[in-house]
Write a structure and sequence with these properties.
By secondary structure, the protein is mainly alpha-helical. Helices cover 34% and strands 1% of the residues. A two-stranded antiparallel ribbon has the order 1-2. The two termini are 21 Å apart.
Length: 379
C-alpha cells in the first residue's frame, strides 16, 4: 500500500482527554452559533446550532441547485436513469455508466482501477479485460454538490463530466455524436427526449445526453446518515464509540480536508507518491504534482479500494495512512491502531445512507442487456 505499517499498540482512552475535547467542541459550537445569529448588515443568519456537541463548526447540509441551463424535471431524471444503465452508450454495447458506478458498490465498482469496454464478468471484483483505466472509479454519491470533477478536477460541471467516459477509449469508447445517432433510431428514446427537452427541433444531441445524465446524477444524495440524525438532535443516533471516532477524526486533522457535512472538499492533496501527475496535468503547476481531489467519505464503507489508484483495500489501513501523512505535514497527529479503529468505525457506521439509491431497471429502451453485478457480501 506504499507505506510501512507498525504493529497495533495497546491503547486506553483517557477520560480527561475526551472530556476536554468535548468541552472544546461545545465552546466551538457555541461560538459558531453566535456568529450565525446576525451579520454586519443586520440581517438574520441561519438558525443557531442547538444539537449535541460536535468537534467542528456546524454547517447545514446544502440543498441541490440545478444549473440555469439544465433545470431538473421528472422526465429528464427518468431519461438520465435509463441512459445511465443502457449499454447503448458504449462501443461494445455491453458496457454502461453503471458498469463502473454501480449502486451495489457504493456508486463505484469495487475494483482497484476500472475495466471498461470488452471486459469480461459482472461489475465488481473479478471483472477483467484489456481496457483498464489508470485511476480508481470515484463514487458519484453527492456529486450534485461538487464544482470540479474527476480526480484532477478537469471538468467544471456534471454536464461537462458526463460525456468524458464516452470519449475515453478504456471506458465506453464511443463518440457522443455516434451515441446520439444510435439513440435516434429507438422510438421510446425519441419520445422520452421530446418530453425531457420540449420545443427543441432535434433534442437527441450529445449536449442533451449529458444534461439528462447529470440531472439523474444530481438525485444521488446521501444526507440521512446517523451523523445527520445526530446533528439534528437525536443523541442516540451515534454510539459512544462512534462519537469518540468523530472526535479523533477532528483531532487527527481529517476534517480540514474532508469538511463536514459533505466530508469532502474541492481541495487537492498529495498523499502518496505516484507516477500520475494528478492536478498538475490540468494546472501545469509543479506544486500540484501528485495532488488529487479530496474525495467524499460518505458511504465510504462501500466505495473502496481507496486513493486515486486504489492502492489501499482496507479502510483501517487508509485511515492510518491518511493520519500519518497529515501528521507529517503538521495537520494533525499520528493515531494509534486502537484510535484508527474508532475513526474507521465512525466512517463505516455514522456516514452511511443509501436511502436514495437508484433502482436498477430490468430492461432499457435499446433492448440491450443491462450490465450485471457480481456477488456482493454485505460489510
Amino acid at each position: 500500500m506504499g507505506g510501512v505499517f507498525f504493529p497495533r499498540a495497546s491503547f486506553r482512552l483517557r477520560a480527561f482527554g475526551w472530556a476536554a475535547l468535548r468541552f472544546a467542541a461545545v465552546v466551538s459550537t457555541a461560538m459558531s452559533a453566535a456568529a450565525c445569529e446576525s451579520s454586519d448588515d443586520g440581517e438574520t443568519g441561519p438558525e443557531p446550532y442547538d444539537g449535541p456537541p460536535i468537534p467542528w463548526a456546524y454547517e447545514p447540509f446544502p440543498a441541490v441547485v440545478d444549473p440555469i441551463d439544465n433545470p431538473s424535471s421528472d422526465a429528464k431524471v427518468g431519461l438520465g436513469r435509463l441512459l445511465f444503465y443502457d449499454p447503448i452508450l458504449s462501443r461494445d454495447k455491453l458496457t454502461a455508466c453503471a458498469t463502473c458506478h454501480s449502486e451495489q458498490w457504493g456508486m463505484s465498482d469495487g475494483l482497484v482501477v476500472s475495466v471498461g469496454v470488452d471486459g469480461e464478468g459482472p461489475t465488481g471484483p473479478g471483472r477483467t479485460g484489456p481496457n483498464m483505466t489508470t485511476r480508481n472509479a470515484q463514487t458519484i454519491w453527492n456529486a450534485a454538490f461538487r464544482s470540479e470533477f474527476f480526480w484532477d478536477g478537469r471538468a467544471k460541471s456534471l454536464e461537462a463530466q458526463a460525456l468524458e467516459p464516452l470519449k475515453a477509449e478504456p471506458e465506453l469508447d464511443l463518440d457522443p455524436s455516434d451515441a446520439a445517432t444510435r439513440i435516434r433510431e429507438i422510438p421510446e428514446y425519441v419520445e422520452m427526449f421530446d418530453e425531457a427537452f420540449p420545443g427543441e427541433a432535434q433534442p437527441i444531441v450529445p449536449e442533451n445526453i449529458a444534461k439528462a445524465l447529470a440531472a439523474f446524477e444530481r438525485t444521488l444524495v446521501s444526507s440521512r446518515a446517523p451523523y445527520d440524525r445526530y446533528v439534528a438532535g437525536d443523541e442516540g443516533a451515534l454510539s459512544d464509540e462512534q462519537i469518540q471516532g468523530m472526535e479523533l477524526f477532528a483531532e487527527a486533522g481529517c476534517a480540514g480536508c474532508h469538511v463536514p457535512p459533505l466530508f469532502e472538499s474541492n481541495e487537492y492533496a498529495m498523499r502518496v507518491e505516484s507516477s500520475d501527475d494528478g492536478r498538475m496535468a490540468v494546472t501545469g503547476e509543479p506544486a500540484d504534482a501528485n495532488a488529487f481531489r479530496v474525495p467524499t467519505l460518505r458511504n465510504l464503507r462501500e466505495t473502496g479500494p481507496f486513493f486515486h489508484d486504489g492502492r489501499v483495500v482496507d479502510l483501517n489501513d487508509a485511515v492510518w495512512l491518511e493520519a500519518d501523512v497529515a501528521a507529517s505535514h503538521g495537520e494533525g497527529r499520528v493515531l494509534t491502531w486502537d484510535e484508527v479503529d474508532l475513526v474507521a468505525l465512525f466512517l463505516r457506521k455514522a456516514l452511511m445512507d443509501r436511502s436514495k439509491e437508484p433502482d436498477r431497471p430490468d430492461e432499457v429502451p435499446s433492448g440491450l442487456p443491462v450490465p450485471e453485478d457480481g456477488l456482493r457480501i454485505p460489510r
